[in-house]
Amino acid sequence: MAAAYSAPAALRNRDPILGVLRDVLPPSGLLLEVASGSGEHALHWARHLPGWTIQPSDADPRARASIAAHAAGDDLPNLRPAIALDAAAGDWPVARADAVLCINMIHIAPWSAALGLLAGAARCLEAGAPLLLYGPYRQAGVPTAPGNEAFDADLRRRDPAWGLRDLEAVEAAAIEAGFLPGPTVRNMPANNLTVVFRRG
Questions:
Q1: What is the extent of the structural domain holding 193?
Q2: What is the mean pLDDT of residues 22-29?
Q3: Name one GO molecular function term (predicted).
Q4: How many other CB atoms sit within 10 Å of the CB of residue 70?
């Protein structure tokens, strides 16, 4: 079996994100995590949200192998095997979910991936169901933290299509995809936000 890898940020932010999930989610359902990465988050949700079935996904086969390797050490009946899912694709392998979660993806991907994520989540979710996005954003009228400015510059050096997204642009695209205006925005550690959209 391929080796599991670890993402230090996942260990730092998993409990703050879990707190938001506990506040936002109903007692049970299917949570689709898009761009699950190492799989450490998905295992954490499965352990601490026993009423929820967790469906991890990632476009990268190395990530899916890591998720499988992490899961092999736990007996978690509510954790499904990771599936291949490209957020930008027009057809996802999941037809419905009760919530969709995406952590630290839309700034490390082209804008088309963010648009695909919003469209795909809108297809999966019923009215009122949440889409939760976590990561750093720019906000109109709010100074961007120096660390986030440096991170944005580094991302754009690596790929001009990457970079911190304007929250207002993400909201406008979400509304266009079928989500309600006025998402709930939670301040998180290390100058990140959790943004909760609701399906219209």
A1: 8-198
A2: 98
A3: methyltransferase activity
A4: 22
Q: Which residues contact 50 (CB under 8 A, 6 or more apart)?
A: 78
Backbone angles phi, psi at 2, to 5 degrees: -65, 155
pLDDT of residue 2: 60
Kindly give, in sequence order, each residue whose CB lies less than 8 Å from that of residue 44, ignoring residues fewer than 6 positions away.
Answer: 14, 18
Q: Per the domain annotation, does 88 fall within a domain?
A: yes
DSSP three-state, residue 163: coil
Average pLDDT value for residue range 4-18: 88
Domain-embedded: residue 34: yes
Is residue 111 within 8 Å of residue 81, measured between CB atoms? no
Residues 91, 93, 95: CA angle, nearest 5 degrees: 85
Residue 26, domain member (yes or no):
yes
CATH of the domain at 30: 3.40.50.150
The number of distinct structural domains making up the chain is 1
Three-class HEC string of 63-86: HHHHHHHHHCCCCCCCECCCECCC
- Could you give the CA distance from residue 115 to residue 190 in angstroms, rounded to a whole number? 25
